[in-house]
Each structure stands twice: as structure tokens, then as C-alpha cells.
Amino acid sequence: MIKVLFVCLGNICRSPMAQFVFKQMVEDRGLSDQFEIDSAATEGYNEMCHAGIHYGTRDILTAMQVPFEEHYSRRIRPRDYAYYDYILAMDDSNIEYIQSIVGVDTDNKIHRLLDFANKPRNIKDPWYTGNFDETYWDIVEGCDAFLKYLKL
Ligand code: 4NP
User: Fold this and answer.
1) Measured between alpha carbons, how far is residue 55 from residues 59, 100, 101 in Å?
2) Which of 68, 121, 138, 145 sits most deeply, having the most CB atoms within 10 A of its CB?
3) H/E element holding 145?
4) Average pLDDT per consecutive 10 residues, the chain (152 residues; last block may be shorter)
């Protein structure tokens, strides 16, 4: 079982998008039994507000026919580091924040999602850009590249 935790700042836009895009890719390849997939935030405010998935993420997932369930923001916890095999962040600032919560990445589990792509880069935050389409295609690219990295 490969356990993957996608992480962003709020866990309402990018990381739940990645969670459900990756879940669908894995299902399409008949690999669901091999993965456990979830997502989390670095900040705690959306967990405190019991925030669900942002409407922009819901809309693009619906438009792209990617199934999703309800997901409520939760903050990453120190014990997630031991539990998950891959902690996949959206940008550099997520990585710094994750490390401040879980400690030093001794097992090399923490990566940016697009570090697996041909052009490693951050995934911009649509909370600020308003561009959920761009985020979606970056996430598809990253998830696809991650599966190739796993040789699956
Ligand atoms: P995300 O976007 O990290 O992609 O989920 C954000 C969502 C909420 C906030 C910031 C970024 N916020 O400030 O509440």
C-alpha cells in the first residue's frame, strides 16, 4: 500500500483537487487497491471553520468529470509523517510549513507535486489567482508525472 498525502495551505482548493484527480487516475489504471490517498492543510483556520471544498475546485472537478466526495479541511499532524509514504506539497512555502510541523524530512517523503514533472515548479494558489483551470492542468501534469516516477 502506497500512502499519499497531498498538502496545501488551506486544504480547500489545491490539495483536495489533487486528491480526487489522483484517485481517479489510479482507478482508471486499476491501481486503487495499491493506494491510500488523502489531503491536508498547513494552516489550521479552515479546520476550525469546518470548511469543505471550495466551489472553484468543485466546479472544475465537475466540469472535468472527476468524481469527488465531501472533504473537510484538516491540518497536517506530526504523526502523519510516519504514516504516509509521500507528502506532496503544492509549493515551496507549503514545504517549509510542513517541515515546521513534522520536523526534518529524514526519510525524503516531502516533495512538491511538480518536482516529478519535466519543468519542476510551484502550483499557484487559485484562492489568490482565481484560475482553477490552470491549477487543474498543473495538478493533472503532476499526478501523471508522479505515477510515472512510481513506474505505475
Ligand atoms: P489552498 O488555497 O491552499 O489551495 O486550499 C487556500 C484556501 C484558503 C486560504 C488560503 C489558500 N485561506 O486563506 O483561507
Assistant:
1) 6, 29, 28
2) 138
3) helix 132-149
4) 98 98 98 98 96 98 98 98 98 98 97 98 98 98 98 90
- Position 152 scores a pLDDT of 86
135 lines ligand 1 (CB under 6 A): no
Ligand 1, atom nearest to 73 Cα = 5
Q: At what angle do helices 14-28 and 55-63 cross, to 10 degrees?
A: 20
30 C-alpha vs ligand 1 centroid, how far in Å? 32
User: What pLDDT score does 120 carry?
Assistant: 98
Cell 466540469 belongs to 63
pTM over 0.90: yes
